[in-house]
Write a structure and sequence with these properties.
By secondary structure, the chain is α/β, with parallel strands linked by helices. Helix content is 48%, strand content 10%. The chain has helices spanning 8-35, 40-49, 78-92, 110-119, 152-172, 193-209, 236-246, 265-274, 300-315, 336-355, 359-367, 371-382, 387-396, 403-410, 412-419, and strands at 54-55, 97-99, 101-102, 123-124, 127-129, 176-179, 184-185, 216-220, 230-231, 250-255, 278-283, 324-327. The structure holds D-allose and zinc ion (ZN) (2 copies).
């Protein structure tokens, strides 16, 4: 972990300047929470133990099918992506793992890649397969779909890619495979809606059969895009049906941007947990669809309500509670490092606020049908400013009191612009 990229003395120096005010705010918040019967140190230690994985693809400028505007000094390969993830982790200390995407992050030596990551203070999280694009030199096209194509040779290729991802994941020390497919249709009648799901189940069962012990297959649903009339795994209904059909190692992954407008995502979280199928998250925010905006930038309250359900689930683990937390965003107009720092903070903030909910008050109010008291249990927690807790946890772990200001002071991006080769401007998908 001493291979962190940013000069540690810079962090210490800036932290020293911030510490007086921070300790003052923390003490004040501690007194406020004590009046509510909450021990600030307990919250701080929960926050210090919290973590969320960052996406390797999120370290570069994202884009749309219209354009991508590269940033000078953005990473162009997995090694540079890892460096940027290490900067994020060094400053915020709650993003110790990177979720890779294949073949985007392909290398020849994965044991070696794992060592490089470890030398930067990082590990790996869920491996993401990619059968939504054709790659150079690929034998069969995914133009007709991948795991659900009517062409058995295409399905076979897509299954083999997922199994290869499992092998890569083993070498990287990972235990989750996330499968999102773009398969679907653009015309009514284009495909038999029942049979395409049959083909999905059949292909997914072959991937499932290749999962090592202790592994999980996380099924990520998404309502639309790239298919605009129907998508095979469009919603949490299709996702949980598939997961239940496949077996206990198959779980559902909730990407916050992948739902119909106005859907109650926190209720979906509760439902999936109720049946032991809550596998993980892709955190982001949105206004319209799968916008992949920064987590908590539009609707931080939704994020809080999701974490409120997660804490309810943790207290009532039923068939266990161990969701994988990951960020999945497209940083189109910001420096991705700054977006990841801001987003990790937003996610941890939602978690910390959910920890402040008076659960006894909430339960009693629910039992007694005291609607306003139940809502106030949530509202009181939500309106508390937990930022001193997050900052103290960060500083205590060696991170920066103010991660974005410290990052800017480090001059990292300018230095990388001088060192790294320029990235292309090809439009991309995130
Ligand atoms: C696509 O919309 C999904 O969010 C996937 O998670 C995808 O693999 C990721 O966003 C990278 O493109
Ligand atoms: Zn996603
Ligand atoms: Zn998405």
């Amino acid at each position: 972990a001493n291979g962190f990229p940013i000069d540690g003395q810079l962090i210490e120096r800036l932290n020293e300047g911030a510490l007086g005010a921070l300790e003052d705010d923390y003490a004040s918040l501690g007194r406020q929470l004590a009046r509510r019967g909450i021990d600030v140190e307990t919250i701080r230690s929960r926050v210090a133990a919290f973590s969320v994985a960052v996406p390797s693809w999120g370290t570069g400028r994202g884009g749309t099918r219209f354009a991508r505007f590269p940033l000078a000094g953005e990473p162009t390969g997995i090694l540079e992506k890892l460096e940027d993830c290490a900067v994020v982790q060094q400053l915020c200390r709650i993003t110790p793992r990177v979720s890779p995407h294949f073949p985007w992050d392909k290398v020849s030596d994965y044991a070696g890649l794992r060592e490089v990551a470890a030398s930067l203070g990082l590990g790996f999280d869920a491996v993401n397969s990619n059968t939504f694009q054709d790659q150079p030199g690929q034998k069969h096209s995914y133009a007709t779909g991948s795991l659900t194509s009517t062409d058995p040779a295409v399905r076979e290729q897509a299954v083999a890619h997922n199994i290869e991802c499992i092998d890569i994941g083993r070498a990287l020390g990972v235990r989750d495979l996330t499968v999102w497919i773009g398969d679907g249709t653009n015309f009514p009648g284009q495909q038999d809606l029942g049979r395409s799901f049959d083909r999905y189940l059949d292909s997914a069962a072959q991937i499932y059969a290749a999962l090592p012990d202790g592994w999980r297959m996380l099924i990520e649903h998404k309502m639309f895009e790239p298919a605009f009339y129907s998508t095979v795994i469009a919603d949490w209904g299709s996702s949980i049906l598939a997961a239940q059909h496949l077996g206990p190692k198959a779980r559902c992954l909730v990407d916050l941007g992948h739902h119909a407008p106005n859907v109650n995502i926190e209720q979906i979280v509760a439902r999936l947990h109720r049946f032991g199928k809550l596998g993980g998250f892709h955190f982001n925010d949105s206004s319209y669809g799968d916008d992949d905006l920064d987590s908590g930038s539009v609707n931080p309250h939704r994020l809080f309500l999701v974490f409120n359900e997660l804490l309810e689930a943790e207290r009532n683990p039923r068939d266990g509670f161990d969701p994988a937390y990951m960020i999945d965003q497209s940083h189109n107009v910001t420096d991705p490092i700054e977006s990841l720092l801001s987003s990790a903070e937003a996610i941890a903030t939602a978690f910390a606020k959910a920890l402040l909910v008076d659960r006894d008050m909430l339960k009693t109010a629910q039992e007694e049908n005291d609607v306003m008291a139940a809502f106030q249990a949530l509202r009181t927690a939500y309106r508390t400013d937990v930022s001193p807790i997050l900052a103290m946890a960060r500083v205590g772990a060696g991170g920066a009191a103010d991660p974005i200001a410290t990052y800017r002071a480090s001059g990292w991006r300018t230095a990388m612009a001088a060192r790294r080769r320029p990235a292309g401007s090809t439009a991309g998908i995130v």
